[in-house]
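Narrative of activities, Objective 1.

The group set out to show that a structural description can be obtained from nothing but a protein's sequence at a throughput compatible with the screening campaign. Below is one input-output pair from the validation batch, recorded exactly as produced.
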Amino acid sequence: MLQHEFWLNLEYTWLAEQIGATWLFPLFNSLHVISITLMLGALLMLDLRLAGVAARVYPYRLLSRDFLPWIWLAFSVATITGIGLFITRASAHVLNPAFQWKMLLMLMAGVNMLIFHHRSVRLAKGWDRTIPLSIRLTGIASLVLWAGVMLGGRWMGHII
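Output recorded for this entry:
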């Protein structure tokens, strides 16, 4: 019960009411979708390169140098707008199975990214030509996890 009260109180904060009852909600929603699209487009290129499926003529280091700043900028905007959207209906979202899956898959995508970065620091030399299977699987896992995050986000409004 205490947890439910916390989420309800969050919905009734000044900021949540301002976002939920004004033009800010459609603005946040639009910025959320645009930033996710930008992030996933850039991430798709990196993950397909890691998986060895596309852009094989480009060294991963060059692609990551070009795309990672955009990925992090877009992820930051998506996180800020996502939190803004979440607080307007927090008590309903935390009970929504689609939201729960979205958060779980996003956490798993983050862990996958941390594992990749840990491994890539050790294996970075020489794998632009021949990518180890573990790195390829990391790219494939990232694609699958982020696709699941997006599906969870789309299903949130349809599961009550």
